[in-house]
Amino acid sequence: MKIKYFQQTDTLYIEFSDGKVAETRDLDENTQVDLDKKGNLCGITIEHASERTDAPNLSFEQVAA
């Protein structure tokens, strides 16, 4: 998984897999999801990310099972 924040455009992209994107669907006017040919989620794009998320202060925590 990769998380990319593009400060210049205030866009957050979360890549869940590096599979080939077959389709992009709009969830709303500022959120799109990328799907592979089987309908699996490849990534999500969030525009106006600083207004809609706390992307600049991102942290990651892995919790043991």
Can I get a quick summary?
The protein is mainly beta. It has one helix and five strands, in the order βββββα.
Describe this structure as you would to a colleague.
With 65 residues, the chain is mainly beta. The chain contains one helix and five strands, in the order βββββα. It has a five-stranded antiparallel sheet. β4 (31-35) and β5 (41-47) form a beta hairpin. The model has no long low-confidence stretch (mean pLDDT 91).
Q: SS-based structural class?
A: mainly beta
Strand content: 35-45%
**Helical content (DSSP H or I, runs of 4+):** under 10%
Largest sheet: 5 strands, antiparallel
- pLDDT averaged over residues: 91
Distance between the termini: 19 Å
Figure out the total of helices: 1
Provide the spatial order of strands within the biggest beta sheet.
1-2-5-4-3
Outline the low-pLDDT stretches: none
Overall form: globular
Helix/strand order: EEEEEH
Rg over CA atoms: 13 Å
E-strand count: 5
Features:
single chain; 65 residues; mainly beta; five-stranded antiparallel beta sheet; 5 strands
Give the helices and strands, then pairings.
Elements: E1 2-6, E2 11-15, E3 23-28, E4 31-35, E5 41-47, H1 49-52
Antiparallel strand pairs: 1-2, 2-5, 3-4, 4-5
